[in-house]
Design goal:
6 helices; about 80% helix
């Protein structure tokens, strides 16, 4: 029963985060902090200190997995806090699975957005320049954008899909036993 309650809370928070990220390019703390707090509280109350530590490990791992991308400028702080909160709810092993799914979905999302924004020939040229620079100079650089009005990636939606897919995976794995 506790698991179902957590998944309902998580789903509502992820829908809210996706909407605010797509519409306003922000994932507000009013979503991430209460979600993390509820994960810690519910796991702590239902499983004692072990549950609290389980949730805390998930929070730390979720936060840590995306922190490097934030530090490199690839995503916003709201994305990192959201993934940490997801980890507090689903725990360390599930947040790692969610990270793998989110990474794959994020890559597909980025490729799709590049193709829609720049077109296939321009995207292929940019990738060629990046790979050539890497192979020759061992420096990873991104060529200047073709158009400064290009849309930015909104990872709130991708994080939500990755987290919910990981829980669907977990549910399918448990029901198959």
């Amino acid at each position: 029963m506790t698991y179902i309650l957590l998944i309902i809370i998580l789903s509502c928070a992820l829908v809210g985060a996706a909407i605010t990220d797509v519409r306003w390019s922000k994932i507000p703390n009013i979503i991430t902090f209460p979600l993390a707090g509820l994960g810690l509280l519910i796991h702590g109350v239902s499983n004692g200190l072990n549950g609290f530590l389980f949730s805390l490990e998930g929070l730390g791992l979720g936060f840590g997995l995306l922190l490097i991308f934030y530090m490199l400028g690839g995503m916003g702080a709201g994305d990192v806090k959201l993934f940490g909160a997801v980890g507090a709810v689903i725990g360390p092993s599930d947040v790692f699975i969610a990270f793998l799914i989110t990474t794959c979905l994020g890559g597909l999302y980025a490729i799709g957005l590049m193709l829609l924004t720049w077109g296939l020939p321009s995207t292929a040229e940019r990738v060629k320049v990046m790979l050539t620079t890497w192979l020759v100079a061992r420096i990873f650089t991104s060529p200047p954008p073709v158009d400064h009005t290009q849309p930015k990636l909104r990872y709130g939606l991708v994080i939500g899909l990755g987290a919910l897919c990981s829980q669907a995976w977990r549910w399918l794995a448990v029901t198959q036993l």
